[in-house]
Amino acid sequence: MTILEGRSGERRGRRRAGGDGSAARRASTYRHLVNPFEPLRVFSDDHIEAMHRTALRILEELGMRVLLPEARRILAAAGATVDEESRMVRFDRGLVEDAAFYYRQLGRDFAKTVIRDGKTHQIYSLMQVGQKFGMQTMNQALLQAVLDKSLSPEHAMNFSTDRQELEGMLAKVLRAAA
Question: Of 67, 94, 102, 135, which has the fewest beta carbons less than 10 angstroms from its beta carbon?
């Protein structure tokens, strides 16, 4: 007799998934697990600082090869030194530290983090700060559409979530153009 066979020699049937509802309850509790332990510290703060300084020196002095031409153009526009012949890109320390600062502020999934932490009031200002990384508020995108003449100012106002701000932005641009 195998493990899967019962006393009568017949195989046991599979349980139906979610038959009694306990699977659904169990699945929902796994989404909110909390680790009660402190993270394991493999490196001391001094070691981490030394690794950071070494990485900055490597990026500044040696650089890294970037194969995609579009990426090299973007990095050059951001302030990196690009050698098109060797496809090497060297990064100024300030550029790397700025990017690291914004990454820490915005994070890869900054919206999720900000919402999870209950700091939704910061989203708008973080998007304004992240302009050099391609982030835009709705009003900034509407203003650009008006300047590109793909939207009329009246239509842009209809789509705006903050009409007073957009009016001010449009007035500022019109004053500068006059």
Answer: 67
Enclosing H/E stretch for 15: none
Question: Whose structure tokens read 């989404």?
Answer: 31
Measuring CA to CA, which residue among 90, 46, 45 is closest to residue 66? 90
Cα distances (angstroms) measured from residue 124 to each of 36, 110, 136, 175: 33, 12, 9, 25
- 56 HSE (CA, 13 A, CB side): 15
Over residues 3-31, mean pLDDT: 57
H/E stretch holding 66: none
DSSP string, 84-130: TTTTEEE--HHHHHHHHHHHHHH-TTHHHHHHHTT-GGGHHHHHHHG
In sequence order, what are the residues at sequence separation of 6 or more whose Cβ sits closer than 8 angstroms to the Cβ of residue 160?
138, 139, 142, 166
Q: What is the largest CA-CA distance in the chain?
A: 94
Pairwise CA distance, residues 125 & 123, whole Å:
6
* pTM score: 0.42
State the pLDDT confidence band at 27, using cuts at 50, 70 and 90: low
